[in-house]
Amino acid sequence: MTSENIIENSKYYIKDEPYYLPTANEVEIFNTALAENIPVLLKGPTGCGKTRFMEYMSWYTKRPLITVSCHDDLTTADLVGRYLIQNDSTIWQDGPLTTAVRNGCICYLDEIVEARKDTTVVIHPLCDDRRILPIEKLGQLLQAPPEFCLTMSYNPGYQSAVKDLKPSTRQRFISIDFSYPSADVEAKIVNQEAGLELAVCERLVKLAGMTRNLVGNGLDEGASTRLLVHAAKLINRGFEPKMACRCGIADVLTDDPETVALLHEMIETLF
Amino acid sequence: MGLLSRLLDKLDASNRRNLSLSRKGGSLESKQTGSSGGMSTTELLIRLELVMGQGSGLPLMDYANEMARLSHPLQLFIFSQAAELSDLSYGHANEFLAVASTALVQMEQKQYERWLLGIKQTLGAGDLAIATEQIENYIDFTTERDTNTAYLNDLTYTLEKLVFSIHKSELPFVEAEISVDNALMSYTDNEALYLPASISHFDNYADNHRLYKVLTFQLLGQIHCQSAQALGSLNEGVRHHGDDYLQVFSTIETLRIDQYIKREFPGLWRDTVLLNKSAETGYPENIFDDADITSVQATLHLTASLLESTDVLPHLIYQSTFQLDLMAHVQKLTVERKAPLILNPTTDVYEEMLETSGDPKTADRGYLRSLKNSKGDSVLKSPPPGWIPDSSGDVEDEQHTTKHHEKGVFYYKEWDTSLKKYRKDWCRLKETVNEDAVETIEIDNSEALRHAEHRIRKTFDQLVNDQKFIRGQSDGDEIDIDAWVSARSSKSKDADDYQNLYIRNNTNNRDVAIMFAVDLSGSTAGWKNSMIKQSTWLLCKTLARMGDQYAVYGFSGSGRSNCRVYPVKTFGESYTKSVKSRIFSMKPDQYTRMGAAIRHLSMLLGKTTAKTRILFVLTDGRPDDVDSYRGQYGVEDTRLALNEAKALSLKPFVLTFDKEGMDYLPYMLGSNRYQLITDISQLPIQISTIYKQLTT
Question: Is 50 exceeded by the pLDDT of residue B676?
């Protein structure tokens, strides 16, 4: 390992405790997975706290966190590394996954199903008992240290038939389900995040629950906790609650005029 | 709403606000006509071409001349409405433009709002001819309906969905019977909400509309606060004290539910307060001060104590009535529905309900509700999601032990939920090519279709243009820097490394096969069938450009020995005239034995080699056939057939028109594998949108 490969750890450490309210035993499960070197799959709808959980666990375990937001043009080279040209010669640049393996970080692949299919194959040997990362271009097999942990997030709510994890990938992980927290926990989260009085947060959560009941019946996905926090922040800044809910929740969820009108009606009944 | 509509809306929002404010007093013909600062004919023509398309062959100049008489806000209003209507039906937008200038100056704001809402709703329901009538007979809207009256029909969609979002299951809205003294009647039997057909109690629309909302939530409150538990005591009370008892109970229970509304829906409580103010009702704030109001028992207790002093009680405008007979009937059904389920898990709930109620629809609803309540647990002994039973113990049917080796005939097993076993070779399915090819295909409403086709093409173009790059190619559009760097850094210095230094755009890296299974049961007759045909035709026509493998099969039948699938387009075929002819010869047949059809089409789809294989079922209702293939039996067999498809690595997806689909589809398919389409006229566009969602 050359000195260039050592990251400046402070860059990837989460220094301040992120606000995270555990809803079940996810913290214990994650800690056990870390201890047993088992990779973790976080499943749940958008905006329910998966990324926040990772930040919290990074802070909690005092391990650096490297997050990769996956997209449909993400290649293996983007994860593992590539040669770059410098002064008429080439130098090797580690990708985020290699960096994480070399430095014993937590590597968090956000929305893994968005990545190209071939990229998931490269993580297979990392996710079983071998825990190795083959770097073909360097001819190296990188052994992951015990501190390294691979975590992926995945939203099973997509209707797309092609955005699905292969069983061979799935079966290398333990899974933590992140459905929306219970109403009282969610209200506390919104209250903490936005600093808005709890009673109003409870009404926001009620509104979210109503939108979630409409999934598949006009809405693709219900309002996430993140959206509630947005609306709560608007209210906290002095916006009228109805206006804040329209801008922060209703108009974000859909463009269909009938459904928007229905969401506005819901807001009217609650605020 | 289309992009154009939104753009126009945005631009014109302030103008329309002005228009709305200025028109509240009534018709403003004098202010709208003449030179009131409206757009010139040329500008109008340009805008009309923007909305309706250039070279459309429509008399746009005539429309422009008519509109030139109007004020600027009214002109803008017409544009925005025409754009919205053209999203629904291009032809009707044209019809609207032909009369809009004349019609709008004769109407008041409420009247034209209702006129346009009516047209849009009718188009949404797919009744094109009625929509045309509504546009032409605009004069009816200037006289017939009172603009201050709120109508249940206009509000049902929003209120039903609003209730669904809280109650988590559908509570249908039904017109309540009119009382003898013509008073407002609203009541519930816990299975539906009964509301007046119209409300004109107040002299303004806002309050009448508000009253509908409050009545709805009162009834919902009765269900959530379990008012029906008092049924026995109510019957007793009425027997002893007459109808006064019911009247007092109704008032006190309404006050109790008010507390629930105040707590749970503060926005609606504000509406309730406003209503009481408008109705000048003195609200008894402290009536529950000394009582425990958490249960209906508290109401009964107070009813007994206040029976002699009814003068302290107000009559609230939104107070509901209690139909004891109706409540008793539904309660009896519910009790009968639940009891045998627990005692005897193998009892067919559907049969029980059918016997009790005599109505297949009620029986079906009862079964589906029990499915939902039990969530597939041991009460019904239903298999868990994704479970496929071992077929080793299949039941052999004596009549079907001998197979006939007929051409195009297949035998499929069927799941008997009462036996918890497959019936082997139970369904005889025949592939029948429809020979009644249509000679001349008349495509109705070609303008609307052209619009839909344009939208579908746009959706698919986005897919096609979603190009991917293949690196390391011997030729291509761009230089692959990575390949060059790799070649430079390669120790072997192999000349071959320098051969593949280009990036090529890969326009066809999709590997998708999709089977469209179209329900051709008798219930799809009429408008639905015509929309299904048009949608299938547009889809096939435009899918060719995608390069995806696709097949279209219709399915129907009558009884287990007469299941039929109709190949419309097979995987091996390309889109030809004869395919088009077969599409337009699809006609409503008989019943929907879904399990056998799904098994057959899954088998065909399973033979393709594509990476992503989607079984797309388009249906208008739940599984149903002449024999016992309905209710629990049909749902369970279809669920198993879909599980079998999943086991073949196929991705099933169901698009349904059935409003009650949400009662059973989550159970049959699991989440995210179904969608309800409420507006059938949007079917072509909806299919393409879902197709895009499914395959990207």
Answer: yes
d(CA B20, CA B24): 6
What the block records as the tokens of B492 is 């072997």
Cα B228 from Cα B234, distance rounded (Å): 9
Residue A15 C-alpha, separation from nearest chain B C-alpha, in angstroms: 36
Same domain, B65 and B80: yes
Q: What is the CA radius of gyration of chain A?
A: 21
Same domain, B648 and B538: yes
As a three-state string, the secondary structure of B23-86 is: HCCCCCHHHHCCCCCCCCHHHHHHHHHHHHCCCCCCCHHHHHHHHCCCCHHHHHHHHHHHHHHH
Residue indicated by tokens 């922040």: A233
Q: In this structure, which long-range contacts are made by residues B198-206, counting pairs with CB atoms below 8 Å and at least 24 apart in sequence?
A: B198/B149, B198/B150, B198/B151, B198/B152, B199/B149, B199/B150, B200/B146, B200/B148, B200/B149, B200/B150, B201/B279, B201/B317, B202/B148, B202/B278, B202/B279, B203/B148, B204/B148, B205/B110, B205/B147, B205/B148, B205/B149, B205/B150
Q: Which residues of A touch B488 (CB under 8 A)?
A: 83, 85, 90
Cα B696 to Cα B684: distance, rounded to the nearest angstrom: 19
ipTM of the complex: 0.77
Provide the chain B residues 413-472 that lie in CB contact (below 8 A) with chain A. Answer: 468-469
Name, in order, each residue with C-beta under 8 angstroms of B609's C-beta and a sequence gap of 6 or more.
Answer: none
- Structural domains in chain B (count): 4
Check whether residue B558 and residue B535 sit in a common domain: yes
In this complex, which of B165, B168, B696 lies closest to A160 when CB atoms are compared? B696
CATH of domain A3-177: 3.40.50.300
Same domain, B84 and B210: no
Using the Cα atoms of residue B379, residue B380, residue B381 and residue B385 in order, give the sign of their dihedral.
negative
Residues 601-620 of B with CB under 8 A from A: 611-614
How far is residue B611 from each of residues A170, B214, B547, measured CA to CA in Å? 17, 53, 14
Q: Which of B179, B187, B209, B198 is nearest to B275 (CA)?
A: B209
Boundaries of every domain in chain A: 3-177, 183-270
Domain ranges, residue B671: 390-467+510-696
User: Model-level pTM?
Assistant: 0.60
Looking at the structure, tell me whether residues B179 and B215 fall in a common domain.
yes
pLDDT tens-place string over residues B194-227: 998 888 888 889 999 999 999 999 999 999 988 8
Task: Please check whether residues B278 and B409 belong to one and the same domain.
Answer: no
Dist. CA B275–CA B272, nearest whole Å: 5
B482 and B522 fall within a common domain: no
Q: What is the pLDDT of residues B453-503, one digit of tens each?
A: 777 777 766 665 555 677 777 776 677 888 888 777 776 666 666 777 878
Please name the residue of chain B whose CA is at the shortest distance from the CA of residue A257: B1
Same domain, B544 and B667: yes
In a domain, B355, yes or no: no
| Contact state of A255 with B678 under an 8 Å Cβ cutoff | no
- Asked if residues B432 and B413 have their Cβ atoms less than 8 Å apart, the reply is no
In contact, B337 and B352? CB cutoff 8 Å: yes
